[in-house]
Amino acid sequence: MKEVFTVKGMSCGHCKNAVESALADVDGVKEAVVDLEAEEVEVEFDDSQTDLKQLKEVVTEEGYKVS
Ligand SMILES: [Cu+2]
Q1: Is 0.90 topped by the overall pTM?
Q2: In the chain, how many domains are there?
Q3: Cβ atoms of residues 3 and 50 within 8 Å
Q4: Separation of 52 CA from ligand 1 center, angstroms?
Q5: Bridge partners of 3?
Q6: What is the C-alpha separation between 35 and 32, in angstroms, rounded?
Q7: Cα(46)–Cα(9) distance, integer angstroms
Q8: Average per-residue pLDDT in the chain?
């Protein structure tokens, strides 16, 4: 499935890469794409292996704010 959520605090390409690679490391995640301008991340994942709550936690652990 595909979900989009807001991530606050991403300011540059480094932040984009940090969020994308942290999400891509989660089992079940197929793709994570950050839109810096929109402050959003779109994640495609297998919901039998992970869920939105876990994905948001991973982003929070990287130091960014989710909503
Ligand atoms: Cu940055």
Answers
A1: yes
A2: 1
A3: no
A4: 23
A5: 43
A6: 10
A7: 26
A8: 97
Banded model confidence at residue 67, pLDDT cuts 50, 70, 90: confident
Say how many CA atoms lie within 13 Å of 67 toward its Cβ.
Answer: 5
Q: The domain containing residue 57 runs over which residues?
A: 2-66
CA of 36 to the centre of ligand 1 (A): 10
**Cα–ligand 1 centroid distance for 19 (angstroms):** 10
Counted residue by residue, the chain has a size of 67
Sign of CA dihedral 47, 42, 13, 10: negative
CATH number at residue 54: 3.30.70.100
Residue 17 Cα to ligand 1 midpoint, Å, equals 9
Q: Ligand 1 centre and the CA of 37: distance in Å?
A: 13
Give the distance from CA 12 to its chain's centroid: 15
